[in-house]
Amino acid sequence: MLVGVFNLETQMSNVSKAGTHALGDRRVNRMGYGAMQLAGPGVFGPPKDRAAAVAVLREAVASGVNHIDTSDFYGPHVTNQIIREALHPYPENLAIVTKVGVRRGADASWIHALSRQEIVDAVHDNLRNLRLDVLDVVNLRVGGLTGPADGSIEAPLTALAELQQQGLIRHLGLSNVSPQQFAESQKIANIVGIQNFYNLANRTDDAFIDNLAEQGIAYVPFFPLGGFTPLQSTALNEVAASVNATPMQIALAWLLHRSPNILLIPGTSSITHLRENLAAASIQLPPDALGSLDAVASQTALQPHA
C-alpha cells in the first residue's frame, strides 16, 4: 500500500500535495483531521487509551495538518480536553473548527440544543475546554443524523451571530443544511464553510458543492468514508489495486479530485490509520479511474459491510 516505511518529511509532503483552500481568514491544507473518534465508544465518555489519542493529534499536526474538526459534545467535553492537552498552546497556523446545536443525554443520546441559551452555553463550553479566548470557526449543526431537516435556521444562527459580534467567534459555518437554509443564512451572517454528509456513494450535494465553489466557500464532507456503513464496491477495490492503495485511500482521493473547495477531515484514533489517510492526499487518479469511481453512486452493487 502507499504507506510503507514512515518518514515525517514525506508525510508533510503528502499533505501539502492536496493543496490549500480558504477557511475564513486562513488558508488550510485540504487534508485535515476529524477528532470525533478520540472519545470513547459511541463518541461518549473517555477513550480507552488517552495517551494514544494525544499521540494521534500530535502526529497529525507534525505531519502538516492545520485544520482540526471537533465539538464539545464529543464525549461530551472529552475530545476538546484531549486536544487542549495534546496541542495547547496551539500552533499559529492551526484552525480548530467546532460545532454547536447538539447536546448529549446521560444515555449517550444526541439531542438538539438550538435554543439561544443552549447556543451560548455551548460556545462557552468550547472556549473553556479548548482553552481559547476566541473560536476560529463555529458550525451550527442542525437537521438529522445524516441529512437536513426542513425549516428555518434563523433563530439559532442569529444567536450564534450575536456571539460572533461579541468577539467570541471569528467565523461561522453550517452543518447538515440544505441549499435553501444556506441561502437563508447568507441574509444573517457571512458563512465560510458547509459541513454535510457526502462521499463517493452519497452525492446529493453535487450541485450545492459546485455553487459553493463558485463563491469560494469551503465544503467539508462528514462521513467521507461512509460513516456507520463503510464504503464498499467493486470499482473502488479495482481502482485501489491498480494504484497500490487501499479502497479508503481512493475514496478520500476521489473527494479531493471532486472539487477544489472540498476539505477533508477523516477521523481515526490510530496512528497507522492516520498515516494511511494523510497519504491519500498524494494519490493522482487517472481519467479512467475517475470515470469508474464517478459511476459508483448509481451502482446497485454498492453495499455496506456486513
Features:
306 residues, alpha/beta, TIM Barrel, two-stranded antiparallel sheet, globular, disordered N terminus
Describe what this molecule looks like in 3D.
This protein has 306 residues and is of the alpha/beta class. The protein has a single domain (8-298), classed as Alpha-Beta Barrel (TIM Barrel), CATH 3.20.20. It contains 11 helices and 11 strands. The protein has helices spanning 8-17, 50-62, 78-87, 116-130, 154-165, 179-185, 206-215, 234-242, 247-258, 271-279, 287-294; strands spanning 20-23, 26-29, 33-34, 67-69, 95-100, 102-104, 110-112, 135-141, 169-175, 191-197, 218-222. The strands form 3 sheets. It has a 7-stranded parallel β-sheet with strand order 3-4-5-8-9-10-11, covered by helices on one side. A two-stranded antiparallel ribbon has the order 1-2. Strand 8 (135-141), helix 5 and strand 9 (169-175) form a beta-alpha-beta unit. The radius of gyration is 18 Å and the shape is globular. The two termini are 24 Å apart.
